[in-house]
Write a structure and sequence with these properties.
350 residues; alpha/beta; TIM Barrel; Pyruvate Kinase, Chain: A, domain 1; 2 domains; six-stranded mixed β-sheet; five-stranded parallel β-sheet; 14 helices
Length: 350
Amino acid sequence: MASGSITTRVVNNGTLSDRKGVNVPDAVIPIPALTEKDRKDLDFALSLGADWIGLSFVQRPSDIVEAREIVGTRAGILSKIEKPAALQQLEEIVRVSDSVMVARGDLGVELPPERVPGVQKRILRVCRQLGKPVVIATQMLESMIDSPVPTRAEASDVASAIYEGADAVMLSAESANGRYPVPAVSMMNRIVTEVERDPLYRNLLDAQHETPLNTRQDAICAALREVTQIIGAVATVTYTSSGATALRAARERPCAPIVSITPNLEIARRLAIAWGVHSTVSPDVQSVDEMVEAATRAALVEGYAAPGDQITIAAGMPFGQGGTTNLLRVAEVGGNAVAGVGSARETATV
């Protein structure tokens, strides 16, 4: 074998096209996660204001750390789990990532196909435990690349991911270069909507509920979930400058939508990936009274509440500092909430 080449043997014949990867199962490849071209592409994506950077072929936590040195806080890092080596350090990888994708295409090549469903559930569970958004991707509605309707198995696959508690599901070739991109997106949305209106969905979320972590932020968001359910709040409102409060609230899977208020447009866009979060952009508040007024106004304007409804509010004080979630309030939406005058009546404080 000459230097720089490999000798292979064809086991199953077929067409070999260009721009294809090479899978090496059961081996940690001793190469950096980012090639020189990757670094140039990354700089270009960041210059355009990308919200998320998908890091492919993650094998170890250091791969994310390497990317973080370049990305900083300019975007979120979404680690794609598609190598068996990543499963050996899964929890450590999830901890240093902002989000995780179950990339079932290459994962299904490097692992026996029958193992992929169990691995998917394991990744989902770890992400739920650590409060990191998780995306299920690849071949979800594959037949819709060439067909206007999916197979029943594909529809069931999308539904199963939602029932299991995934934050998001993703199309690839179906919408990138398929013949029916709009019907594919519409179909996925219809499946998700149907699952979320099924009473069994809420029962499964409650059964899968994770024990809160031993932190102040988790304690507040766990209480937010309980209070929301007990009083029948129509919305949970989170104030967040870094996105952390909204993500901790999403980890709890409350029974009401999460209206996230942030002064940062980049954070608002980034939170779109998280379960149940509807983001709005608003200037920073300076006092608790301003916070309550803005929260009730946002819930009303965004269509999640009506006058007389109750909402729960989670925030951190002092305002504008990330990672300080320490406040829980219950408020009633008043009739003048749009104007912001006499718009709320505070009913409880924690």
